[in-house]
Amino acid sequence: MTTPPAWVGRATLALIFVLLLSVGRSGAGGGILFGYDVKEFPLPRPGGGPVGIAADAAGGIWFTERDAGRIGRVVNSSIVELDISTPNSTPLLITNGPDNNLWFTAIDGNFIGRITPGVGIDEFPLVTRSRPSAITTGPDGNMWFTALGRIGRVTLNGAVSEFVVDEIRSMANGLTTGPDNALWYATFDHIGRFTIGGESRTFDVGEDVAPGSITVGADGALWFTVFSGDYYVGRLTTDGKLTKFAETQSEVPEGPQFITRGPEDNLWFTDGSGQLFRINQAGTITSIASFGDDSGLLDVTSGADGGLWVTETSANKIARVSALGFNYVQLGDNSGPAALARGDDDTIWFTAYSANRVGFLTPNGSLVQHELGDGVAPFGITVAPDGRAWFVGQDNNIVGVISRAGELIQYAIPTRDSYPQDIVRGPDGNFWFTELDASKIGRITPQGVITEFPTLTPFGDPQNIALGPDGNLWFTLAATNMIGRITPNGTMTEFPIPTADSSPNGIAAGADGNLYFTEYFAGRVARITTAGIVTELGTPDNQTYPAYVTLGPDGAMWFTEDFGNRLGRIAPDGRITKFDLPLEDAQPLGIIGRSDGTLVFGLFNAGRLATVELAAAEPTRTRGVDPTPTRTVPPGSTPTHTPVLPVDSCLGDCDDDGAVSIAELVTGVNIALGNSVVTTC
């Protein structure tokens, strides 16, 4: 948990109760499920016919224009186009190469193209008239492509070789490098495996079917689409075990087309009706966005911004769909939600730092906030097994405990002006907290007895604290650039961080038995073993300021970048992905996961809680929101009820007569279910 910047105000607001509504957004080209953001980018010239699409190493989006013989690029929400010198070349599919150039196939031009950003396009002719189609980086670091009856290789300096593969009886639009370092392709009636040594093998996937696109999932299996015959999405393990999803389901009405691994480790695919679908590793399929059956939706790729980018061939557009659907609960302007904690029943408690409030959000969507009075500045928070929340007050130097009904007890910290920062329940049943300005770790019993332990290094500025998998308490020391460990009996150890002045902040235990922490000034996340060995992850970016980190319900570590205005995700395999937030300058801070697969985080500047459903978790969950949630009202308080919608809003009282009629209520329900657009109100 991080200390808010010094300029953050501490205004006090009235008590607010909010009913969370999940309402669909309408976006360009079709319906949007809940908070998924959609943007479309029309091509500047007509008749382009975009087909293939890929992201480069710097996060740029490149695509082919099949009908116009051009290459396009999305730059700052604008499209720049490059003409290919060979006329009627018909560029088809495109990918990012290991040399950070873009490589594409030209099916009619019969060459492989290489785009060097800022330089130009090179063309490498093929030996035979084989009409190249799919292209990918091979296990040997060269580019590999499919063609009629062939698989080919192009070295990074343009030397071409082709290998006859009798099993490729039609054009193969799918090619990827598998986890076994072999090339896997999709063609008529089968999925094929080809090694760089020339060995081939086929896997039957059904009679008279046409597999199209293929990719590797986070589970290490090959995922592919079948776009004719029996429509389905297939999962094939490297030893040949086949699973079919949605073979006869209406969710794939026109046949799946292209598929890719998404930034949040689900699989995403397009279909012939112009819909973009998400399928998680358990095979659950969800339609996320519809562009219309006249859009010609085709290829899909993951962007570095946490979105899915698609080509609309017939509509002559490129589109972006956010991989995460964001929904919001309004806490009130200047509330400053900071830290979050989860109770055993999935209730999320939070501190509203600037408004001097503590509140909770129940799994059914009810929100309750309790006024604490002026001069508290609550920050760190945790939840006891009895459902009460324990928190620290920075301005009045206390540890507080509050019940759902608002019954409050406060315990004064012995050291004056200690500026307590974070708190967690220890394995001993006591609560452990950090004292930033006093450079101490505090322990408080459930009865309120406080013991303080000075850090080994003076002026260490302990920030956040977490329970480690070893049964000890682990904390960050921002000023001395160390990670600390304290046993329940008070024995302390400190471990240095390799990068100087990184200012470690948030810390949380991972699923792998290690702890993860953010380096606020260094702009990265690091991992520490329980033996104290530190590994720094990813590429540093000192403009992002990563703050909190938590173990998500999908098994990944999630963190917030409060000035980067993004969420970050560290997959179990170590891959790091960032997700831009749709609200500008929201300053995400505290973050926590629920067991139903929901991720909840606070937006300090926006005065909101945000929720995201992580489909990759595939937990046992209850979908939807209770239409009549129970609201707990603290004694002596008068609640007000304010509906909150993700972006557009319908407050129910459509004719502003001061009352909500049955007809208006039905309208609001239809909007919430996505059956009507917001303007219906």
List low-confidence stretches: 1-33, 619-651, 656-660, 669-681
Q: In percent, how helical is the residue content? A: under 10%
Largest sheet data: 4 strands, antiparallel
The outline comes out as elongated
The helix/strand class is mainly beta
Strand order of the largest sheet: 3-30-29-28
Computed CA radius of gyration, to the nearest angstrom: 27 Å
Percentage of residues in DSSP E strands: 35-45%
Give the number of DSSP strands.
Answer: 58
Q: Compute the average pLDDT.
A: 85
Q: Termini separation (Å)?
A: 41 Å
| Secondary structure tally, helices | 1
Descriptive report:
2% of the residues lie in helices and 44% in strands. The protein has one helix and 58 strands. It is elongated and about 85 Å long. The two termini are 41 Å apart.
In short:
The chain is an all-beta fold.
Q: What topology does this entry show?
A:
Layout: E1 25-27, E2 30-32, E3 38-42, E4 50-55, E5 61-65, E6 70-75, E7 78-83, E8 91-96, E9 102-106, E10 111-116, E11 120-125, E12 135-137, E13 143-147, E14 150-154, E15 160-164, E16 174-177, E17 183-187, E18 190-194, E19 200-204, E20 211-216, E21 222-226, E22 232-236, E23 242-245, E24 256-261, E25 267-271, E26 275-279, E27 285-290, E28 297-302, E29 307-312, E30 317-322, E31 327-330, E32 337-342, E33 348-352, E34 357-361, E35 367-371, E36 378-383, E37 389-393, E38 398-402, E39 408-412, E40 420-425, E41 431-435, E42 440-444, E43 450-454, E44 462-467, E45 473-477, E46 482-486, E47 492-496, E48 504-509, E49 515-519, E50 524-528, E51 534-537, E52 546-551, E53 557-561, E54 566-570, E55 576-580, E56 588-593, E57 598-603, E58 608-613, H1 662-672
